[in-house]
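note to self — DONT lose this again. spent like an hour looking for the file last time. sequence + predicted structure for the chain T wanted, 421 res
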Amino acid sequence: MAEHRVVIVGGGFAGLQLAKDLKCPDTSITIIDRRNHHLFQPLLYQVATTVLATSEIAWPIRAVFRSRKDVSTLLGEVIGVDTAARLVSLKDGHTIPYDTLVLATGARHAYFGRDDWEPFAPGLKALEDATTIRRRLLLAFEKAELESNPDIRRAMLTFSIIGAGPTGVEMAGIIAELTHRTLVEEFRSIDTTRARILLVEAGPRVLPAFHETLSHYAERSLAAMGVEVRTGRPVTNCNEHGISIGDEFVPSHTVIWAAGVQASKASVWVGAEKDRVGRAIVQPDLTVMDHPEIFVIGDAALVKTGEGTPVPGIAPAAKQQGKYVAKVIKARANQRPTPPPFKYKHLGNLATIGPSSAVIDFGKLRLKGTLAWWIWGFAHIYFLIGTRSRMAVALSWLWAFTAGHHSARLITQKETLKNEV
């Protein structure tokens, strides 16, 4: 009997979980990703804000599956799918045949029709994004140290974060810690504690997915840390000089985008119906209409809960979808009845605000403060891949917590002075 060829496009949480769970005789698995690593995205903002190094939250996909001879990994960028011939097309001209195709291609940041803002307000979805933001953050202080004009210096030390979901809140909190604790004794011409940290949210409150009590607690905690929170007014313009909030212009040389996402082109590749942000609308078993051999999961798919609301684009949801698809494929291979439709189990929302401060929303159970911060930390360490990564992250956090020092404050890009100063 010929091997059943399963092709997984995307090595994120959904794709990786599927490959881990799919152990089936006479089945070969090929993972295709345009990067050679799996990224633990929930901690990506800590790379951007100098707490963690890139190697602490990313692992080579090949290393993850080194003992699985049924799993092959290909480095390549998918540009299309021939659903009739069952072929995946790569940018370099190669084609990969499949019997079952799983698209777990994730999402990128979206600028709501203002893509011209991206050069001035980078988003945060990949390691390259994190190192770009980290470079801009650190260079802002370096350039301000040399600047004699007080107005220009003030703009250099104004950090604007657009979007107050978990990423925006967590980033604002760490930048506040960076300016008020980590860097405070390292510069001579500037006072880093006078840096302005601006968190802008178009909606009425920060952390809109959380209960109102936790949202208000987060806003008060941020204010106590020196973060200026602006809600209820959207950013109307963004350029190299700063941002506009309504009619008000705020000079700011460092702007970070944490406001919206756009799904990959997976829906286009397979001709699936899609929603306004490009997510493929899938069937209850996560397959594409008229193509039972094609699954779309993770941030690339619009999956509904039992109440009819979209499943959130978070890591636990992606992993649950990966597990489910593995069960469906194994049931088909063994000619057993397939599982009932996918049912999402919400495990709660978590966000950290600052040292010893976090919020957790488990629905009926809501936690805030130090206990929530410890639970948040243990939860993230638990899901890291490998003992070495868990130890490295724990040590970096311990160092930052006790000494106030961040371990990843190197500006290493060769073009730094040429392009940024």
